[in-house]
Known about the structure:
Layout: H1 15-27, H2 32-46, H3 57-70, H4 82-90
GO biological process, one term: regulation of DNA-templated transcription
Pfam families: RelB (PF04221)
Protein name: DNA-damage-inducible protein J
Amino acid sequence: MQTKETDRINARVQHDVKVRAQIELEKNGLTISEYLRIVLTSVANNGLPEHFAQPKQEVVDSIMEMTDAMTNNKSLSGGTSKEAFERSLRE
């Protein structure tokens, strides 16, 4: 039987995060290494979940509230660049 080559991955996390994660994983019979192996294999095989990078609705609502406040509730003219958007916020 041929063994596949493996690589070591090092990650730095706060100690309390590691301990709390370890406790939760142990409840399910997993080590941190096993869990990371499962997650990385899933990402490698299937990619990230469809809505992985989308903010929660409360974040979107906060952004909209801030935009309304900055524009005194008037519609933004928009633009095709960051500079045009920022300029429309100042108008």
